[in-house]
Design a protein that fits this description.
By secondary structure, this protein is α/β, with parallel strands linked by helices. Helices cover about 50% and strands about 10% of the residues. The protein has 13 helices and eight strands. The chain has a four-stranded parallel beta sheet with strand order 2-1-3-4, with helices on both faces. Strand 1, helix 1 and strand 2 form a beta-alpha-beta unit. It is globular and about 55 Å long. Keywords: Oxidoreductase.
Length: about 300
Amino acid sequence: MLKYAYYPGCVAQGACRELDISTRAVTQSLGIELVEIKKAACCGSGTFKEDSQLLEDTVNARNIALAEELNLPLLTHCSTCQGVLGRVNERLKHCQEHNPVYLNQINGLLTKENCSPYQGNTEVKHILYALIQDYGLEKIAERLTRKLSNLKCAAFYGCYLLRSEKHTKEDPFHPEGMENIFRVLGATPVYYRGRNQCCGWPLASYGTNESFKMAGMHIEEALSQGADCIVTPCPLCHLNLDSRQPEIEKVISKKLQLPILHLPQLIALGLGISPQLLGLERHIVSTKPVLEKLGL
């Protein structure tokens, strides 16, 4: 049995609670055990380092150390958390040999707060690659009870997932991890230019129109290639592409109405899990067209 220290992150416990619900549903269905790290802090989503690299490294060294206490790999379903936590983990592992003074400084700060020191003996893994590399696509195929045969899915990887760590073994310019999941589920992958680009979320607070134009461009491209939905492994991408889609439509003066699914929601549908249990009704853009395509 696979077992992970589960790092749900902030957004899945707030604006995207359906992501946490569907992640738990998928892992339970596949027989994967999650041990939630309840004392974990926000990873900072890349903003801590704007003020202090030491701050980002210390906060996330603590998060990783909480997984090390359980002697388990850390599992996240957020590309941004994966990017930050994974980058910190790789940097601090490098420091063990090449910059022990810096690592000792971080562990000194953790000790002052009665936290376990960072050991560098675990991995940070996004659920996408945990399912592909640890669980296996063949085993997922064996567990399917519903083929998603009529569905055309456009992956949206986002910024962080493909650019942070070595273990993904993905070509950042030509990834196939999500598309391989789609094929196993019986869905048809849709390829389009923006699938591995930024959704625009980081711009939203100070360049709102630019952010919405960027997101709108990706959605339009996916629609032009015949996509029935966009599937993302990042809750921040989901927020920009789904919850802000009505505002995006106003900025680009075009109707879009393309459903956006979290990756675990799509997998859960293939595993026969009821749509009512996956929080699909929480989405701003209706997911009914997706369910109708599947005869649900």
